Batch of 2 targets.
Target 1
Amino acid sequence: MQRRLFLKNSLKTLGAGAAGVTAAPFVSTAKAQDTITWNMVTSWPQNFPALGTGASDFARRIEQMSGGRMRIRVHGAGELVPALEVFDAVSAGTAEMGHSASYYWRGKVAAAQFFTAVPFGMNTTETNAWLYHGGGQELWDEVYAAHNLKPFPVGNTGTQMAGWFKQEIDSLEDMQGLKLRLPGLAGEAMNRIGVTTVNMPGGEIFTSMQTGVLDAADWVGPYNDLAFGLHQVADYYYTSAWNEPSAILEGTVNLEAWQALPDDLKAVVSEAARASNLAMISEFAYRNAEALETLVDEHGVQLRTFPEDVMTALYQASQEVIAEQVDDDPESKRVYDSYVAFQKLVRPFSDVGEFAYLKAREAVGA
């Protein structure tokens, strides 16, 4: 009996000791390493649906995946820096991280526009394939390194709407003289067909539409547009998604801060970015469907598509704008050449795969 008790107690002691040996490295590591606390500045209102919450999701994933070794404090637009100064703030080290959209920086880095959206370009699946497998990320790294930044795709709004209009568009003539909020290459194309475009943070759109500063505005899609109440200031919602067939949201890290991270935490940030990117795509697919139903059924929003002459003019103008930029800026040419080559590579399968399926589904009424 005593022998059995002795063995039982010995095994308990051994088990406790073994557990202690197993746990010790984690305990000592946690004590030995200081928690890294970074600030993330964003172009979105704090916790704004999908965009603001996407930034918070990115921060949460980093903290969880690092076991608490990294903590990211997320700041909404205007809390530390204005919405459209994220690029400069992270580049200068005012904040270690940012969450925004690269086409806001076209005046600083012309090639940056291709890392948000290209008019009549690739869809979200194709764009992610270019970034992850087609050399897009490497080009993005190269472009941003000159500005002391390390970029990541951290979210994608998917196919965006063409925008809200106070008046119905029946022809190209109806576009003349309109004041429209629309950034990036698409905004430049709109200018070519007689529209006056401006770039402003999303939080200013409602008031600008309400007071007549704007006649029309692009924002994102049904989910975010409903959140801003844009259906209250315009009746016509255009679905002709030429401008942003895919819209990448970028996470940026100050390059010096990035280089100072140990390799395992670099991996944490990279994988958290990938997870947040894919999570946002799924969320938008769901939330946009819900919000569109609400806009149409409950608020009486009128869905429209641009007439053929408008779409033709926008395509031609887009090609002109892109060609001029590529001719004037070697960096833009390298990025766009890669983008176009990848689009040509993947389009045949996109056409016989997803596009063919969507047409078949529509034909049978499924």
Note: Residues 1-32 have pLDDT under 50 and may be disordered.
Target 2
Amino acid sequence: MADRIRMPAHAQAAYDDADRERWVPETGKRVGRTAFERDRARVLHSAALRRLAGKTQVVEPGESPPDGRQVPRTRLTHSLECGQIGRELGQALGCDPDLVEAACLAHDLGHPPFGHNGELALDRAAQPCGGFEGNAQSLRLLSRLEPKTFAETGPLAGRSVGLNLTRAGLDAVLKYPWPRHEGVRTYGVYEEDLEVFAWVRRDAPEGRRSLEAQVMDWSDDVAYSVHDFEDAVYSGRIDLDRLGAPGERAAVLALAADRYALAPEGELGEALDRLLATEFWPKGFDASRRAQARLKNTTSGLIGRLCLAAERETAAFFGPTPGVRYAADLLVPRAARLECAVLKALTAHYVMGRADLEDLRTRQRAIVTDLVAMLAAGAPDALDPALRPDYLAADTDAARLRVVVDQVASLTDDAAVILHRALDR
């Protein structure tokens, strides 16, 4: 039976049957939920989302400040917080809130163990099969690997189609809606998954992201820049008083200019000064209950500041209800992007840039590299039962290596360490 539509009148007209279509048609679903509510539920109940609880965000899962009262964020908590931010921002712009939230919850599903450090190692190991990219892996997981829906008839008969999300749902996850090609570092689809990619992108402007994907992307930036900053302040790794020292300030601004924003350091300094001048900027954090409350107000204030800037800029250009999908773009003022870049640089300088982490990162990369080699040598028996049929059906060395990469990418940080220890005996 058809999904019931429950959206504002303008949104009902904006999302058509093609937006709600699934790669493999489904029948017999109970009435009472919209197609996008169902997308959100499928992601929320997926094993892939649960695994994010054991995957690195900035510091390792389980690493806590000395007092043990606060646990740093993981990929799971980040995704949940990103979902809340994206839901509200998308709804304010007239997007379907369940559609945007589903994309936010799903955007990191393909990330491997050990964060971007693990992604770098896995990309190197996967070069013979076309490389590894966390965003492309997310699409692969949603449309192939996550066990939920199988095609029973037609050209895809007998094949898993993952969560079988709607066209608009998969498109909203596509942060980089193009395949890998020369000169491009980030991409959203592997060669093996071009068939579903072509279906998702039918009639979409080439290389252009949907409004929902843009909302997801900005919500992701806001969530991790603000929340990672909060974690770093709470843990004592950022001493805000040190920012007054010229050397410390210069180091942060240089990092922001080099890694997070193509902007002069002077302009980034103005962004930092604007943040320091806000009424909610944390000062003199001592971990007391009152200081913790002030820090949470900082988090709320920063999220509101960055999201409202985008909401107002977009509404000012496109009108109060900009439209959905490709009717509008999310416009984020330059000032807001630079403030976001400064927040990222603060965490990168004081947390991720710590010298004592380099030995750990080296070991993590070695674990990922070894796992690919050891699983490939022991395949198919060494692989998870769910992946063995894929390996046996593969007809080239590259295709078989891709299956091995699928397994390594799915591992949590702890599972990678444990499996490495078991295979290395």
Note: The chain has a mean pLDDT of 90.
